[in-house]
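Figure caption, in words: inputs first, then the predicted bound structure.
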Amino acid sequence: MNEPLKIGLAGLGTVGRGVIRMIEGSNGEAIARKLGRPVQITSVTARDRTKDRGVDISSYQWFETPEALAKEADIDVFVELIGGENGPALEATKIALGRGLDVVTANKAMLAMHSVKLAILAEEKDAKLLFEAAIAGGIPIVKTLKESLSGNQIKRVYGILNGTCNYILTVMQNEGKPFDVILKAAQEEGYAEADPSFDIGGIDAAHKLALLTSLCFGTETSFKDVYIEGIEKITPEDITAVDDLGYRIKLLGVALKTDEGIEQRVHPTLVPKNSAIGQVSGVTNCVCVDGDFVGKVMQVGPGAGEGPTASSVVGDIIEAASKDQSPVFTLPAKELMTYQRAPIRAHEGGYYVRLSLCDRPGTFAAIANRMAEFGISLESIVQRHQGDKFNSQNEEKTEAPAPVVIITHNTTELAVSEALQAIEQDGHIIGQPNMIRIERL
Ligand code: HSE
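Bound structure (L-homoserine present):
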């Protein structure tokens, strides 16, 4: 057998443990046969050396910091599983690439912010920077885009890129409970992080989308240009109303080319409930790619967790063992095109709008007129009668708000936001309208 491929592992959390189990277990022998050389973890680092992780790390050389490991360890591949946009993860990655070591990382936040600089460094040093685990955990979308689909012009990429949000929306759908109640239960059961703001606020999905955009369109990664809305404002009323109309609400990340530039957006989205993506439930992720020759391709699978994420990391370690050198993205990093942002106000699509109307003669017509004034054509408008309310003291009938749900034909974001502003100013509605974009599949 040839010399082993020596691995330095920075970060021994859930994914790090999975990588150790995969390489040290029976899969290790099969991998060695495929590669013609064993893969050997030689060096590790983490915050706490003594913590019981359920795996034996005593035979590995211990380093106090990721930077020290990246700088000094006798390794071929540096595996970064620390996380975080900056700090030790970024520093150690730069050091490792600077040494010409191949780097495998699961760190979407770091790459979303620094991928171009890191890719230039890697390519200058003839090193690989591999990140299959950074987008949708166990789903092999990076290799699919870089290899199998690389002859296509990609028109649109979209998907369910955050398992926590999909889990919460699925339970809201099944149990009819409000968002905050389900989030709390998910935290107690360990499905959601103690600080879930990156997940539910759409940031985590936006990190992944920014990387998918570069892979699909050959542009510089531009996280700051992703339009982001989280799922915090989705109510059980929205879930029920869209269900009646044949839709599901999903937090989608979508990137597409338009005449104005590239549109990148993460927001709650209506998709037909009988569509393949409408059926993706729980913590499962999916990525859909629309290519000019291949048509529509969809990959579905686990987006997080020890086994699935370790599977992608180890796949990248195996790729690092090959001599072939390919760009970090689909184009050499210095040739990635400047990102041109298509503003969200130019977005074209259908819209769901839920309003609470003052139930008086003429309000329904006034709403429809305002929509028409801004050139918005309505596909459906439904008033959900809640019955009259009576004042318990004197049995007088009082004005009950009437929930109205509107679905528009394709229009622009600008038209919808201006129409809703005018409707609010007219004083016909109670509270604020709730608007959700519809994705045509
Ligand atoms: N927290 C993410 C999710 C997984 O809920 O999908 C890691 O990005």
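Residues 345-438 form a domain with the Alpha-Beta Plaits fold (CATH 3.30.70.260).
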